[in-house]
Amino acid sequence: MRRIILFDGECNFCDQSVQFIIKRDPKGDFKFASLQSETGKELLSKYNASKSIDSIILIEDGHCYYKSSAALRICKKLKGAWKLLYLFIILPRPLRDFFYDIIARNRYKWFGKNESCRIPSPEERKRFL
Which Pfam families does this entry report, sorted A to Z (predicted)? Predict the structure, then answer.
């Protein structure tokens, strides 16, 4: 099964989140592409995802998941206690997304923007599309 995470490549918080996921995904189940990359744009088009979305997107089993649904489905596949966060999926999506949106709206202010990308290791590079 192929799982692809699309993320904001200009956001420090998003970059740190990708690094967090890589460390907790030893099997390499997740592949990554920035929303700004050609691959990211092609995937958005292929899955009819809105181009105005600048939050994390998970493509899994031919479906796109956005915001808190994407984040929780990602947590479900990580090693360790992070799987337990998936229990929040029982909360109504509008409530989950309300809290997600607070972080998303303030991510540049709180965490800053990347002026340049970190160079991934050769092993990590294989996981980027």
Answer: DCC1-like
